[in-house]
Amino acid sequence: MTTTPLIRGAAGVAAFLAAVELAVRFALAEGVVFPPPSTVLREAAFLLADPEFLAGVAATLLNWALGLLVAVAVAVPAGVALGTLPAAERATRPLLEFMRPIPSVAIIPLAILLIPVDTVMKAAVIVYASVWPVLINTVYGMREVDPLAKDSLRSFGFGRLAVLWRVSLPSAAPFVATGVRIAAGVALILAVSAELLAGGSAGIGVYVIKAGSGNRTDLMLAATLWAGAAGLLANTLLQAAERRLFHWHEART
């Protein structure tokens, strides 16, 4: 019987956890600094009944969703415009190429100084980090539109807006979806990073800080584990949505 990728992945994770568990138990790693995976997994299960942690997860996901939605609302129209208007793309390229490589985490201290409202500050940082994958993928998708399809529609008397709506946007949609999926992971990283650096009243990053101040390494790792699980779940759901909505694109490629 053929082993499925899911089973292989689960076996790999189990083998890694077993190896770390043995390393800690046999004093190959310092147990106080790095608790064994069995302890971390137990604490992770207990966190599901911790109201403070659940409130922190809700706060993090709220900032994540808000920042990601704003990034998509900004990046998609901008990407369509830049991908459709070569003159606009050439005019803005130097600025975009200058801003895009700036590490998003590096702007968090500046955002703290400039934006006093905690939720708005974190959402702004998430937007800055998340807008680039969506923007670049949208521009690329617009460039990949089949020119023959556009010319065919124009030959039937359709104008620019009709060609954009009927041909360009549907053709670029799979690229946009991929950009959104990548941006979702980036947004979650920035949501937790902003909480770690800026603090706040609630959030996964805030919970990690509190656990660290109490020398609870097991709780720190357990909370981080759930942050990773949230990112994995978001990526899996978005990937499944891509396959369902754009199965014709996968078949073509």
Describe this structure in words.
The protein has 253 residues and is an all-alpha fold. The protein has eleven helices and no strands. It has helices spanning 5-25, 37-47, 51-84, 86-99, 108-114, 118-143, 147-155, 160-198, 204-213, 217-245, 247-252. It is globular and about 75 Å long. The two termini are 29 Å apart. The model has no long low-confidence stretch (mean pLDDT 83).
Q: Specify the structural class.
A: mainly alpha
How many DSSP-defined strands? 0
Strand content: under 5%
Low-pLDDT stretches:
none
CA radius of gyration is: 22 Å
Largest sheet: none
Q: Looking at the structure, what is the overall shape?
A: globular
Secondary-structure element pattern, one letter each: HHHHHHHHHHH
Helices, by number, come to 11
How far the N terminus sits from the C terminus, by CA atoms, comes to 29 Å
Quick description:
The chain has 253 residues and is mainly α. The chain is built from 11 helices and no strands.
List keywords for this structure.
253 residues; mainly alpha; 81% helix; globular
Write the layout of secondary structure elements.
Layout (H helix, E strand, L loop, with lengths): L4 H21 L11 H11 L3 H34 L1 H14 L8 H7 L3 H26 L3 H9 L4 H39 L5 H10 L3 H29 L1 H6 L1
Helix pairs in contact: 2-10, 3-4, 3-6, 3-8, 3-9, 5-6, 6-8, 7-8, 8-9, 8-10, 9-10
